[in-house]
Amino acid sequence: MRADARIRLWRVICAVTFAVALVAGGAAQNVQAKLITFNFEGDVTYVGDKLLGTFNVGDKLSGSYTFDSATPDIVTDPVFGDYYALKALNFTVGTYTGTLGAGTRVIEVVNNYTDIISTTDWYRVLNNPFSGPNVGGLPPSDFLLYLQDTTAAVFSSDALPITPPDLSLFDEKVFDVRFGPCDNSTAGECNLMGTITSLTLGISPDTILEFFDDSVDNGDLSGSGPGKSANNRLNALRNMVEEAGALIEGGFIAEACRQLMDAYKKTDGKPRPPDFVEGDAAPDLATMIQDLRAGLGCQQ
C-alpha cells in the first residue's frame, strides 16, 4: 500500500472511530450499527493431553472478531457491561481453524469490580460453542479472550471499547480454547491456553466504505466503462460492499464471503470479469476486501 493510501486509510479509521464514539456518547439520535474488527495474535503455552498432536506448545494463534459497536448493554449495573455484539469470529492455531458458533456471543466489560481482596477491570470475549472440527473426538466448546487489570485503572466505565484495549495496561492477557465436554477431573486435558501478544484494529465494511468514498472524492477511484456505465459500476461495487456489511451484521457470514469475493473480482485488475473501478486506489481497495475476507475466515 502506497504511503498516501496508508495516510488516507488511517484518516478513515479515525473518522469511523469518531463517528462510533458520537453514537456511544449519545450524540446521535438514531443509533446505527457500526461494525468494528479487532485482530489478535498469541502464543500457545499449554496444551491438554487430549489435544496433543493437533496442538503443541509454541503454536501461534491468529484471528479476528467483528462486533456491532451500537449493541446495548443488557446489564443495568454500572460495573458490568454485557454486550451480545459478536458478528464474526475467526481464529487459527497451527492448521486448525475455528469460527463463530451459534451459542453465546458476548463481549463483557467490567469496571472496578471489588471483592474482599482487590478491585479489578477486565475485558472478555466469549463464544460458546465456537464452530470447528472435533479434536480427539471432542467437539468445540469455548473460545475465550480475557484481559485483566488488577489495578482497576484501564476502564473508566463499563462502555464497550471501540478501539483495541492497550495490552500493556493489563497484567493478565490470555486465551482459552476448550473442547468437550470434559468432567471436572479431566477438564485441563481438554484446554488449549496461551498469551495474547497483539490486539489491533482491523478492516471492517465501514472502513472499506469510508476509504471508497474518500478515494472517489479525491479522484483516486472512479468507475470503469463507457458512458453512464462507469458511474453505474462504481455505485454497484459500493452497494456490494454495503450489502456484505448487512450480511455480516445479520450473521450470514458465508453469504458475506461470497458477496465480497464477487466484489474482489471486480477490483482485482484481471480482464475477466471486467473491473468496475479504476484509479490509483483500486489496488488498495482490492487488498482491503481480501483482508476483510481473511478476517471473516472466508475460503479462497
Question: How would you describe this structure to a colleague?
Answer:
The chain has 300 residues and is an alpha+beta fold. The longest helix is centred in the N-terminal third of the chain and has 22 residues, at 3-24. A hairpin with a 2-residue loop joins strand 4 and strand 5. It has two domains: 35-201; 205-296, no CATH class. It is built from five helices and twelve strands. Helix 1 packs across helix 2 and helix 4 (253-265) packs antiparallel against helix 5 (282-296). Residues 5-31 have low confidence and may be disordered. The strands form two sheets. A ten-stranded antiparallel beta sheet has the order 3-6-7-8-9-10-1-2-4-5, covered by helices on one side. It has a two-stranded antiparallel sheet with strand order 11-12. The chain starts with a helix and ends with a helix. The protein has helices at residues 3-24, 205-218, 229-249, 253-265, 282-296, and strands at 35-47, 60-68, 80-83, 86-93, 96-99, 104-114, 119-128, 140-149, 172-179, 191-201, 222-223, 277-278.
